[in-house]
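ok so I'm stuck.
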Amino acid sequence: MPTPTRTSTPMSAEIPAAGIPAAGTPARETPACETPADGAVPGFDLRHHGDAEVRGADAGLTDLAVNVRAGTPPRWLKDRIAASLDGLAAYPDGRAARAAVAACHGVPEGRVLLTAGAAEAFVLIARALPARRPVVVHPQFTEPEAALRDAGHTVERVLLDERDGFRLDPAAVPDDADLVVVGNPTNPTSVLHPAAVLAELARPGRTLVVDEAFMDAVPGEPASLASRTDVPGLVVLRSLTKTWGLAGLRIGYVLAAPGIIAALERVQPLWPVSTPALAAAEACCAPDALAEAARAAERAAADRAYLADRLGEFAEAGLRVCGPAAGPFLLIRLPDAAAIRTRLRELGFAVRRGDTFPGLGPDWLRLAVRDRETTDRFMIALAKALQDG
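replied:
not stuck anymore, here's the structure
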């Protein structure tokens, strides 16, 4: 593979993987110092997320925009959370939850930091860890870049290419990047990068941040680095939001070397994780809960395959499914996707727009995996939307 083209400018530079421009790649962005205070960047609204599709009057739409497992949280988890309310008069004590997370991954407790959702961890990293040349691998969840920008960093991008299946080539990352952020499986592409490929990115003097927010939705978690203690500078982020339906409770955690954990903890507010969220974290790390999550991952994989097969029926209309996919969502490309998305809303379905992700453009949509009955209803709506278009 040819040596990637690299650039080092005061701009928010985009570095195409393998030296070729990604499909849908826009013009170079404005300098970070010119980024609006809300985190938006010309061409990419980094602070737009799937929940914006189903707020207010749109709450009644069938939700294919938010990647949270439907029908959650389960009753037993609601009961555990409700039981914790009797302790709200006391300040939160995270020791039991921290121990449960550590035991779940087979690491010492000193390698665990509980956070108010995985998104808080991006803010802590941006504020606490030094970075002269931070690089974010895109397309991926945009909050890491937004947090780095808000902390005053100039961010460079490595844009993965759809012609390579959005797969990561470690050589595409600049050698002197001292902070690298990558998702696995990646939102929104649903690509699962092999653990060995990600480990190649690690080196002395570099912090490697791997966002594994959706890893527990991958059967067997074959590419997870969460339990690895031999990878220098590794920071793994995990979330309990997706599998357990706890987006409103805000609970996630960081796994890293004790020195990194201590640095993050120093910039974290006091008592950042509520007592109910701590109760949920402890409960979700129990053996029975882990077994339930594993079964849910298997069901999601089967439902994803069904969704992909049904979408294949629209290949003649120019619809293409990005794959192979590993997460509980699919990325699709189709002509005039923005108009199709609007028509789908009129037909009762919310889907995630793709043009807010660097490296994608207006022809992309992301679909959350749902049960087969919901998929069949969606196919009827999609056929109607395409016909109308």
